[in-house]
Amino acid sequence: MKMTIVGAGAIGGMLGAHMVAAGHDITLCDADRAHIDAIRASGLTIEGPIANFTVHPTAIYDDELTGQHDCVMLAVKSHHTKMAASLIAPHLSSDGVVLTVQNGLTLDTAAQFIDPRHIVTAFINIGADVIEPGRIRQGNIAAFYVGEPLLNEVTERVNRLVDALPYAKSTTNILGFLWGKEAYGAMLYAGAVSDLSIADSLSDPRYHDLMIAIAREVLDQAPVKAEGFDGFEPDDLEGSLERLAAFNAASAKTHSGIYRDLMVRRRPTEVADLLRDLSGPLTTHIGRIIEAIERNERTCEVANLDLANAYYRAHRLAEPLHAIVHYLEAPRRAPTGPLHGYQVAIKDIIAVAGTPLGNGNPIDMTGPPSSTDAPIVATLREAGADVFATTSLLEYALGSPHPGVPEARNPVAPALVAGGSSGGSAVIVAVGAAQLALGTDTGGSVRIPAHYCNVVGFKPTYGHLPIQGITPLAPTLDHVGILARDVATTILGYQALMGSPVTHPGSRRPRLGVVRTQLATDLLDPIVAQAIHHALDLLTMAGYERIELAPSPFDRLELAFDPIVGYEAYQIHGPLLAADPQHFGEETARVLGQARSITQAQYLGAIEEKRAASVELLGVFDTIDLIVGPTSPMVAPGQNPSLDTPEGYLEGIMTRVYNLTGQPAISIPIPGSRLPVGLQLAGARGHDGEVLCWAEEIERILGES
User: Fold this and answer.
1) CA distance 374 to 467
2) Cβ–Cβ under 8 Å, residues 14 and 45
3) Which residues on neighbouring strands pair with residue 3, listed in sequence order?
4) Using DSSP, how many helices (H) and how many strands (E) does the chain show?
């Protein structure tokens, strides 16, 4: 057979070399002049475990293609299809045939220049790489099918091509093979963002569900029955991973062509075709990461695959619980740092550049994107964190969801709420999509969702973390807080945000202060009571000293909270309420409207009571190290109670005290309860490191019971 191959790279060159060796008249045509020059000078060498030989075909530059040709193979990268097809079209004879041997769905692009009746399509899974100009390594022998894309039959011209091509077979469903390769190829794209081999990325249990979900996303878009090959079976994706890993482990081609384009050849990939040909969130996330690597904003590393896994888990597990507001594609961040490889979510009341500051309000959520990050978000990026999603909250963090914004549901029991107001941040950590999330805490809005969702929630000392760039609620009480899967991760996040290590208290055990009235069984839900008393008993058995505290300063601080938060919230949101009451949800507008009646004298009196009672409460740290008790007397309810209802008052009765005093406080899960229960630990102001380190030790003791 006489054939001109346009695209003499890995696949076109490998096939052409075998055809030359079999006695066919082959001309290789390529835009890579160094490659063509090397073939002209020394021939084309195929090497590797399959074959080792050199042939001397005719080799021409792309601008040297002349005359009329009866048989042309189009074997360029898919994103060069338009250029190659426009080159071929004037030189194709009236009854000529073009065989496309490419990854991707390129028929429509080629048909813009070549009558589709002249096009035969091939599917190929043989692995090959250009090692240097004039040298190609063939890694394996694999599936290679040729068929008519417009016909469900094997024609004479297909048979002629199959007879001439190495390893080729005919098929009546070539589009089915191409869609099967699209699904498999999407998994290869995902693996290529890391530095893992193909076999390792497919066999690593961390990415098992991600890979299956990516393949399924593609197969669900296939307009034909997808075909299996080389261990890939569309009806058995679970088993396909094991078979494909073994198949690729046996190949001399360890990494995909996408990876080689990114990290070896440093040239554009076919990612634009991936994003054009396929829809679906996972392939889009992968494509955006590849684009970022092409722009030198990232490098191929496992952290990118972990990011893709975070997107997958967020879509599958957090999104159905209404925890996600926006996804941030291939987020900007420093290439190294203490949070490198950590995926972090941000409560949508904290400014994140490029996305609206939503505040749990549907009007704000459709507003203009923030132009800059809040300082705390910028610090996360500088620490190497992937800030990849924003999370849902109660409207303006004031205690009620807007009726137009679904409230986050509990990952342990979806019929229950995740808690307010940082519920979305608690959920995304609880389902394992993010290792860390930021929330805000004015009266318990980090610790209460942590208590409901079985994660850790930490509110540092007031002022330790910046609140600039965050929509305020009550500035004298507003804190930024951290939600995490465990205390160790919380410590890591806090250290990164502070820019310094925490101070460890050494081996001494803290003296625990307990407020007897907080443990009264008529105050606590029975599930909470059982868990808290069990936890305190475990700590007593572990040698922790318990000291009873007088309730007086706690009671005084309780009375100061509502006037302060109400007055300050109205000063911030009252003007908008007056100008546009419909901007707010009904419950938020009602609570703000009631706060209008708080006078400045009442506010200043509450501020003075807060000051005096804080001095009294903080004085107990002369004799204790931690105040210990329930995070909330309630387990997660079915609906978030409004701030000014009896249920709303009860929910935060044990957390808001520490917003008034500014003390560091953390909620850690107590294992074993039917519904999640948190144990709250509060320390002296400024002693955040000690609180965190003791919390890690107590977490261990509770976990060993």
Assistant:
1) 8
2) no
3) 26
4) 25, 23
Domain positions in the chain: 1-172, 177-300, 309-498, 512-703
- Looking only at Cα atoms, what is the longest distance across the chain? 100
CA separation for the pair 592, 567 (Å, rounded): 9
3-state DSSP helix/strand/coil percent for the chain, to nearest 5? 45, 15, 40
How far, rounded to the nearest angstrom, does the alpha carbon of residue 267 sit from its chain's CA centroid?
Answer: 26
Q: Which amino acid is at 572?
A: I
Q: Helix 526-541 to helix 688-703 angle, to the nearest 10 degrees?
A: 100
Three-class HEC string of 89-130: HHHEEEEEEEEEECCCCCHHHHCCCCCHHHEEEEEECCCEEE
Counted residue by residue, the chain has a size of 705
* Domain at 1-172: CATH architecture: 3-Layer(aba) Sandwich (3.40)
Examine domains 1-172 and 309-498 and report if their fold is the same.
no
Query: Quick one: tokens of 566?
Result: 């109400």
- Amino acid found at 520: A
pTM > 0.85: yes
CA atoms within 13 A on the CB side of 295: 10
Alpha-carbon distance of 605 to 187, in angstroms, equals 63
Three-class SS state of 324: strand
- Predicted confidence at residue 521, as pLDDT, reads 83
State residue 705's pLDDT score: 80
The two tokens of residue 563 are 């006037």
Identify the architecture of domain 309-498 in CATH: Alpha-Beta Complex (3.90)
Could you report the per-residue pLDDT of 438-489, keeping only the tens digit for each?
A: 999 999 999 999 999 999 999 999 999 999 999 999 999 999 999 999 999 9
Is 69 in a helix, a strand, or coil? strand
At 531 the pLDDT is 98
CA separation for the pair 265, 288 (Å, rounded): 20
The whole-angstrom distance between residue 468's C-alpha and the CA centroid of its chain comes to: 25
434 close to 344: Cβ distance less than 8 angstroms? yes
Please, are residues 670 and 679 in contact by the beta-carbon 8 Å criterion?
A: yes
| Nearest to 65, CA basis, from 100, 38, 29, 12 | 29
User: What's the one-letter identity of residue 474?
Assistant: A
Cis omega before residue 421 (within 30°)? yes
Cβ proximity of 439 and 470 under 8 Å: no
- Tens of pLDDT, residues 648-681: 999 999 999 999 999 999 999 999 999 999 999 9
Q: Under CATH, which number does the domain 512-703 receive?
A: 3.90.1300.10
Please state whether beta strands 25-30 and 665-669 pair in parallel, antiparallel, or not at all (unpaired).
unpaired
pLDDT under 50 in the chain at which residues? none
Q: Which of 137, 193, 289 is nearest to 201 (CA)?
A: 193
Residue 539 burial by Cβ neighbours in a 10 Å radius (0-12, 13-18, 19+): buried
Q: Is 336 exposed, middle or buried (0-12, 13-18, 19+ CB in 10 A)?
A: exposed
Backbone angles phi, psi at 407, to 5 degrees: -85, 150
Alpha-carbon span 394 to 324, nearest angstrom? 13
Closest CA to 309 of 235, 204, 401: 204
330 close to 292: Cβ distance less than 8 angstroms? yes
The Cα 300–Cα 290 span in angstroms is 9
Which are the contacts of 234, defined by CB distance < 8 A and separation ≥ 6? Answer: 180, 183, 215, 219, 226, 227, 228
601 Cβ contact partners less than 8 Å away, ≥ 6 residues apart: none
Reference 321, options 389, 267, 231; nearest CA is: 389
> Any idea which fold 177-300 has?
N-(1-d-carboxylethyl)-l-norvaline Dehydrogenase; domain 2 (1.10.1040)
